[in-house]
Write a structure and sequence with these properties.
mainly alpha
């Protein structure tokens, strides 16, 4: 299982993909609402408008969404520290 072999690189990849996910979700919502549906969602005009209006589109709630994506991504992908195995104590039977 990969959990035993995770490194900082895995954490960085997890954080980057979570940020991309939030940004992609924001873009898809903008494009869907701006185009009244799926038509023209990925044309250059929609992307240009998204870039120009990014200051108005992003707000404080998006910081919360980023934090809710980045923090778990960082922690879940963290290298696991091996826990020492403690021997089981046998209870004497009478």
């Amino acid at each position: 299982m990969a959990n035993k072999r995770t490194t900082r690189v895995h954490q960085i990849i997890a954080v980057i993909t979570s940020i991309i996910g939030v940004l992609l979700g924001k873009y898809l919502l903008f494009a869907y609402v701006g185009n009244d549906g799926m038509d023209g969602m990925f044309d250059s005009y929609t992307f240009q408008m998204f870039q120009e209006m990014s200051g108005e589109i992003f707000d404080a709630l998006d910081i919360l969404f980023l934090a809710l994506a980045v923090v778990p991504a960082w922690r879940i992908a963290a290298p696991k520290v091996a826990q020492p195995v403690q021997p089981q104590q046998s209870t004497p039977t009478e």
